[in-house]
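Lecture notes, continued. The same structure-token format from the folding unit now serves as the input rather than the output. Read the line below as a description of shape only.
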């Protein structure tokens, strides 16, 4: 290995200063990398400061805990819902009450997939436009007393209602 020229050594020092180690270890310098030519014992190297400990992951919220196989099955329409709830014709209060009661029954019976039909946006409406019930469902589920039992919420396959419906995937009951 050839010795570094002074301008190369200066450039290498800048590179070393800009790098943050993955694991705390000795800080590398050009002298430590380049073999000493008839020099005395190597200089002691200062240790890098330890990295902060990672924070614990927050509790899972509905919608983020499915593995890839579940998502593939849902997107291909291969999952058959255990029960469905149709919220057509309901106002916000009655829709929430019906959803809460049906979730309670689904959890008690050990169901895994619930189809929630909210209805499609009107023809010609922009894709972001949706009904009041559909807009509120995400908040309802997150704040629900059943939130800990909900593994994920996904859009339904066209055969189950497409943009007018949602799959609510429930966690497996422990001890069964």
């Amino acid at each position: 290995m050839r010795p570094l020229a002074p301008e190369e050594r200066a450039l290498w020092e800048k590179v070393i200063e800009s790098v943050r180690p993955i694991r705390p270890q000795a800080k590398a310098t050009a002298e430590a990398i380049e073999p000493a030519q008839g020099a005395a014992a190597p200089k002691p190297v200062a240790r890098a400061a330890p990295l902060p400990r990672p924070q614990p992951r927050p509790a899972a919220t509905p919608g983020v805990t499915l593995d890839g196989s579940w998502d593939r099955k849902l997107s291909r329409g291969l999952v058959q819902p255990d029960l469905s709830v149709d919220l057509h014709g309901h106002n916000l209060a009655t829709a929430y009450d019906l959803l809460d009661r049906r979730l309670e029954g689904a959890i008690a019976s050990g169901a895994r997939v619930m189809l929630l039909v909210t209805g499609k946006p009107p023809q010609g409406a922009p894709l972001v436009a949706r009904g009041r019930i559909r807009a509120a469902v995400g908040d309802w589920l997150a704040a629900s007393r059943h939130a800990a039992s909900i593994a994920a919420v996904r859009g339904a396959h066209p055969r189950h209602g497409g943009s007018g419906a949602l799959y609510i995937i429930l966690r497996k009951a422990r001890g069964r």
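Point for the exam: The first helix runs from residue 6 to 18.
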